[in-house]
Amino acid sequence: MYKSCFSFFTLNRPDAVPDICLAWRKAVVLMISFIMLLGFASFARADLLSRARAGETIRIGFANEVPWAYPGPGGQPLGFVNAYTLAVLKKMGFTKVEPVVTEWGGLIPGLKAHRFDIVTGGMYILRERCRNVAFSDPMGVVSDAFIVPKGNPKHIETYKDIASRNLIFVTGAGYNQLKAAHRQDIPDANIMQVPGPTEILAAVRAGRADAGGIPYFTARNLAKKSGDVEVTDPTRLPEWTKNWVGIAFRKQDSAFRDAFNKAQAAYLGSDEMLALVKKYGYTRSQLPGKVTTDYACKHR
After folding, report:
1. 129 and 192 together in one domain
2. Number of structural domains the chain divides into
3. Is the pLDDT of residue 218 over 90?
4. Which runs of consecutive H residues, i.e. helices, occur in 92-193?
5. Considering only Cβ atoms within 10 Å of each terminal Cβ, which end of the chain, N or C, has fewer?
6. How many CB atoms lie within 10 A of CB 78?
7. Residue 46 — very low, low, confident or very high, per pLDDT cuts 50/70/90?
8. Other CB atoms closer than 10 Å to residue 45's CB: what's the count?
């Protein structure tokens, strides 16, 4: 039948083509289209290492979190985590990178939805996040801190100070400080959640919140920028508020993560690396030591 149908088409006699041949041609066209779509989808979902080696652009996702990772002029990826990640990628032979800026709460959902390939936003390695993404080996360790009005008029140093005095605490949506506040018995009614550092600073400056909970680096940058808030002593907070920072990948991109770890191991803590991130405030004291990602995933 297929040969006879073919003869009708090659004779250029569309008016004489039997219905069964038209149906056969339609089925063939649909099948070819389906196969092509499957091929495109397979290519789009190929693992990151294969795509990067094929010369595709690697998309890095981050929020506006100074000095961790933030956009500069023209969207240029700035901040010590961005600078560090770009340097490791270059060591791996990958220099085609595209920055994608989003809100903090959209980083993990955006990674899983393939809107970008890597999260460079300065993300803590936490148990609940480890269920959703594959973290690199730690690239730093950072303490929490509070920003409070200049002079710290309410003498806030710890989460317990906020809970015991019925004070108002503000932090970012999706920030680990929310979990810490709950652990230290601050009720939900006393917790404000806002999009990010700018809103945290605004809440404290306007008196809508008594203290803002954020990572130490972020707190120090906000205090420097505003001039009317100060940073509390991070050593007054419990040891368990200290966290390790990693670069996040999709779980199916573990091959790329492993290659990244290998390149990172030779670069982390080198004089070259420390010179690169010095201007952002990252020093040798922020190096992660011997703590592993497995440890952080289980204990944070």
Report:
1. no
2. 3
3. yes
4. 107-112, 127-130, 159-164, 176-183
5. N
6. 20
7. confident
8. 10
